[in-house]
Design brief:
The protein contains 20 helices and 2 strands. The protein is mainly α. The protein is globular. Bound molecules: farnesyl diphosphate and magnesium ion (MG) (2 copies). The site of one magnesium ion has 3 residues, from helix 7. It comes from Nannochloropsis gaditana. This is Polyprenyl synthetase.
């Protein structure tokens, strides 16, 4: 019997796996241009953040390797052989974790340009440290290097799945930039956008971890991994939006109330608007008039909006746990469960 999920530190479990991570990324993004190299490396040095996504990818890689119980139980066409722990497999799964973080960081560097955000991970954003041009190139460059690393996995299915994740990231940004007044009020639109923006990368990375672990696409293990990533990603984004609303820049390491400033209505506001219809015109005009942001904040705080958004995150976190319920017992599985339980309470 391993420790109960509550005693597990999911980040500590894979810390060793991720230790060579920054160094090899830094080597990988070395260019002849010192500014570009520095900009691309920026978030892999001291400010490496929580490494949430690579942690999930590594835990999933280990959890699916713990045994093939569910696939073996199903039998028939869906069954895949129980994977053996294989060093090459493990190396590829670690590379997947790196690729996932590189894509994420590239998207953040670009995101801060698009959002005109000055800070990230408690430091200046790359475009503020250097310039917009350098930030655009540094993001592109990281993506290019991530693509090379992806090709080296020699798995066409994984390449396609991760390429789809990239596509989704861009789709999410487009949805956000082009939302109509009707879209802005629509919780379904908000959730689809959240899937594209956040859940897709986590979900596709989890699915890829299972594929690299030797499971076939569509097998119970692969589907479970994908579902886990989908629900955890949604829980994570909803909480991010709650924190944007309730947190302070100090704690978040990035500006608070950024969403409303960008004209975006997130879960707490959308739920609040069901109770207080007077929020609808403010949402539709993207909080653009003098005092709109403050008024919205006051109105939302007088509703169940924040609590309902929080409960939505709890719901998805629980669905993530349910998705991997039939995985064989392992420390990595406990880590994944703990991560899901942590998602709704994380501070930043
Ligand atoms: C953060 O959201 C942004 C993302 C999760 C995705 C950004 C994607 C792009 C800019 C498309 C280009 C993609 C690549 C791979 C270069 P946010 O602005 O809501 O969150 P924040 O508060 O952390 O800024
Ligand atoms: Mg942003
Ligand atoms: Mg953004």
């Amino acid at each position: 019997d391993g420790p109960a999920p509550n005693d597990v530190d999911p980040f500590a479990l894979v810390k060793k796996d991720l230790a060579p991570f920054s160094d090899s990324i830094k080597e990988l993004v070395e260019t002849e241009n010192p500014v570009l190299t520095a900009a691309a490396k920026h978030f892999f040095e001291k400010r490496h953040g929580k490494r949430f996504r690579p942690t999930i990818a590594m835990l999933m890689s280990r959890a699916v390797q713990a045994g093939g119980a569910i696939d073996r139980d199903v039998g028939g066409a869906m069954a895949t052989p129980m994977p053996v722990v294989d060093p090459l497999r493990y190396q590829r799964q670690s590379q997947l974790a790196q690729i996932t973080e590189m894509i994420h960081v590239a998207s953040l560097i670009h995101d801060d340009v698009l959002d005109e955000a000055d800070t990230r991970r408690g430091d200046l954003a790359v475009h503020k440290l250097y310039s917009n041009k350098v930030a655009v190139l540094a993001g592109d460059y990281l993506l290019a290097r991530a693509s090379v690393l992806l090709a080296r996995l020699e798995n066409v299915q994984v390449v396609e799945i991760m390429a789809n994740a990239l596509d989704a990231l861009v789709q999410g940004e487009i949805m956000q930039a082009k939302s109509s007044a009707k879209d802005l009020l629509d919780l379904g639109h908000y959730l689809r956008k959240s899937y594209y923006k956040t859940a897709s990368l986590i979900c596709n990375s989890c699915c890829s971890a299972a594929l690299l672990g030797g499971y076939t696409y569509g097998s119970p293990t692969t589907v479970a991994a994908e579902k886990y990533g989908y629900h955890l990603g949604l829980a994570y984004q909803v909480i991010d939006d709650v924190l944007d609303f309730t947190g302070t820049a100090d704690v978040l390491g990035k500006p608070a109330m950024a969403d409303m400033t960008l004209g975006l209505a997130t879960a707490p506001i959308l739920y609040a608007a069901e109770e207080k219809k007077e929020l609808k015109p403010l949402i539709k005009r993207r909080f653009k008039e003098q005092g709109d942001v403050e008024q919205t904040y006051k109105l939302v705080m007088g509703t169940e909006g924040v609590e309902r958004a929080y409960q939505l995150a709890v719901f998805h976190a629980q669905r993530a746990v349910d998705a991997i319920a039939s995985f064989p017992p392992s420390e990595a599985k406990d880590g994944l469960i703990k991560l899901a339980h942590m998602a709704p309470v994380r501070i930043a």
